[in-house]
Amino acid sequence: MAKPTPGAKNLPVKYPSVPDSEAGPSRYNEPDIPTGVDRVPADRFQLGDTRADLRLRIEQLLQRKEAVPDDAWAQLGPDARDLLVEMLDDEAVRSREEVLHRVISVIGQLAVKRGITPLSSILADGSARNVTQAYAANALGRIGEPAAIEALVAAANVKDDMVRRQLAIALGRIERETVVPHLLKLSEDQSIAVAEVAAEAVGRWEQKLGRPLGAKRKVATTKSAGKARAKKKPAPEEG
Amino acid sequence: MPREAGGSGRVFSRKDTELIRASFGPQVAAPLDLNKAKPEQLANHPLIGRRLATKLVNFRKKTRIISPADLYHAGLIDYGLLRKLESCTFGREAIRPLMQGIEIDGRHLFVDEAFALRFTWLATAAVSPVILSVEVRFPSGRTSELHVRLSKKDIKAGQVTLPGFSSGESGELYVLATLRDAAGGVSRQSAIFGVFTRNPVQIFVTPQYLTQSGGAGAPKYNFGENRWYCYAQVRWVNGEGQSVNLGRRVNVHVTDAAIGTVADFAFDLSGDIVIPAFSTVYGNWYTWHGSGGIFDEFSAKGDLTFRYSMSGSGFTPARSQVWRTMRTIGYNIIRVGDFTATERSEYQRAAEQIASGIFRSRDMTVYGVELYRIEGTPDMDADKARFRFIDNQGEINALRSKYTVNNWYLDVFFVEGRWDGAFGSSPVNGPVDKQGDASGLVLRRDSDTVNLGQTFAHEAGHYLGLEHADEDDGCADTDPASPTISDNFIFSSSRRDSAVITGCQINKMRQHGLVRSMTP
């Protein structure tokens, strides 16, 4: 079935045309305007194996647009994991939020256990932005160690539902039965986005333990909620 | 008889100019000596302020500050501020090498004349510097990055000089130096230098805003007014030792290589262009074309050369610029999350101007950007809470399969965060009908607008059919004019300024159904 489309939204063009083809003569005939040439010294640099080089290699991977596969990180060796954790405390990283977020997510992706303490601090930091806390929660869940549970539970009263959803997802990833009471509580959350992932995690525990784990709010699963919303469309931006 | 053409423009305010400079890269000042800095210097420092400066001055009367950690142990600052101060202040000795200066010989740089950059740092016995990384943004908009492994002699001297730079245009040259030490730490500093010509007064006209690739500009067609518009950013550079007033009149001479002169007209800016001695003034202007030769040529998908000139204080600077109609794409920015109004306008700018600047090097441009949001109904509010932070690929697919906009623009879902930390992702050769779960780009928050604009272009390249330049994409990785693969806009580790599109790549993209030819 075709996806929903917005209503009476005027398209910005009168004549949306067919895809371009290379046929037909070009009317482009203006000569290029000469521009000045910028010069830099010849770059003969080659990467070595000092810690400064390792930092440079890490920064090059952090710069990639898409996700970096695990083996690319593995090629950098175990020192890279330590340096990534140290970079969480580095002002050059902290001063650029998107790089900090990438470092946090890589620590989660690689499940670097040393990252639990600094990530817990970020999660507990009241001055941190919600999105930063969401990154920290998500990464802690991927590390999946019991030590992360305390920090995740302590942050469970945070107001932002994006962060609470990530807390629920993170707790759902940790294979320790001590998370169950917290998941049960989150399954009663006022936000459906939080409650549904907590309820799914509780369901997985029920299957694993072979018994019901107490009342939980009936929430629509992502799949069924998706069906219910099948007619929805993004609203035009107001400003 | 109605006028066929006209124009308008203005000089930017100081705030606008600061924004332009901020877009060059981070502005990082030299570190402050906590023992020797004057009280006003301390008070004016953004991290210290008047209150802490008073406490600090009293503290250093009693003891010599060894490092910023002394302030932490004395209870004057918290750990968060300590971490910040360690990167930009020092006591008796720095705890790691700190960049201290970026210098040139003489007071000014001149076009096409070689110059050297000298980098100095504060040495420390504890850790040695190993690598100096230098990023230079030339007035032309071109950016270069190079790394230098420091020799023992450099390390001992606490400085290194790099000769062999020269700029082909006048304007402002930005340098960012990053000193990398043996412990894996970094220290950064930036500087801006003026580049002037021996023929001192110049005008530079750049279509739209901070295009990275230069080349031809794209006129925009306004259907309501039935006019073509040529919008441009302008900078006026004065290398004279005295102020120059160019007046407000701009004369425009328009030519076609086959026809010769097509039109001559003039317009007035909102005020006189007064350029102080040895400085650069930024502004913008546009011309419009409602009928006549220029209108006809643009409507027929042709190109024209505009020669702009001004006159005053004995100078008559002029600048030529080619304008041509282009193939187009568009972006629907579909917001999933809480973004400030400023962020939203920056995202729009990244798509409309930075990404467009990259595509224009190959005669393609971003025709338009429309903004949408997923919020406002209970269901969409729930989806907003679900998808503000994306936890896995399944959520990306769910988001894309649920929402679209029924036009020919690329759907770009803007989320606050992604589990993988990636700047963005897109299917290769995405569906033209935008149906299914691979029907859009998913980008995340990025405060670096230039990098974000590069991401818009990079991910659109995937959607329009391109693999990474360094993967098996059936295209040559480089062009003779651009032999460095990392300069390619779709290199897997493309930089914020990677803007090269090869002929093979543009030909592939043009086959996609969401690339249009736009004529009125």
Could you describe the 3D structure shown?
The complex is a heterodimer of chains A (239) and B (520). Chain A is an all-alpha fold and 239 residues long. Chain A has twelve helices and one strand, in the order H-H-H-H-H-H-H-H-H-H-H-H-E. In chain A, helix 7 (130-143) packs parallel to helix 9. The radius of gyration of chain A is 25 Å and the shape is elongated. Chain B folds into four domains: 32-90; 97-196, SOR catalytic domain (Immunoglobulin-like), CATH 2.60.40; 203-324, Immunoglobulin-like (Sandwich); 327-517, Collagenase (Catalytic Domain), CATH 3.40.390.10. Helices cover 24% and strands 34% of the residues of chain B. Chain B contains twelve helices and 29 strands. In chain B, strands 22, 23, 25, 27, 28 and 29 form a six-stranded mixed sheet that branches. In chain B, 50% of the residues are buried. The chains are: A mainly alpha (239), B alpha+beta (520). At the A-B interface, helix 1, helix 4, helix 5, helix 7 and helix 9 of A face helix 5, strand 7, strand 8, strand 9 and strand 10 of B.
List the helices and strands and how they pair.
The complex is a heterodimer of chains A (239) and B (520).
Chain A lengths: L50 H12 L7 H5 L3 H10 L3 H4 L2 H13 L6 H9 L5 H14 L3 H8 L6 H13 L6 H7 L5 H18 L12 H7 L6 E2 L3
Helix pairs in contact in A: 1-3, 3-5, 5-7, 6-7, 6-8, 7-9, 9-10, 9-11, 10-11
Chain B lengths: L4 E7 L2 H11 L7 E2 L5 H6 L4 H14 L6 H5 L5 H10 E2 L7 E6 L5 E2 L4 E8 L6 E9 L5 E7 L2 H6 L1 E7 L5 E11 L4 E11 L4 E7 L12 E3 L4 E12 L5 E2 L3 E8 L3 E9 L5 E2 L3 E11 L2 H8 L3 E7 L8 E7 L2 E10 L4 H20 L3 E10 L4 H10 L1 E2 L2 H10 L7 E6 L1 E2 L5 E2 L15 E4 L4 H15 L39 H8 L5 E2 L3
Parallel strand pairs in B: 2-3, 5-11, 22-23, 22-25, 24-26, 25-28
Antiparallel strand pairs in B: 1-19, 4-6, 6-9, 7-8, 7-10, 10-11, 12-14, 13-14, 14-19, 15-18, 16-17, 16-20, 20-21, 22-29, 27-28
Helix pairs in contact in B: 8-11
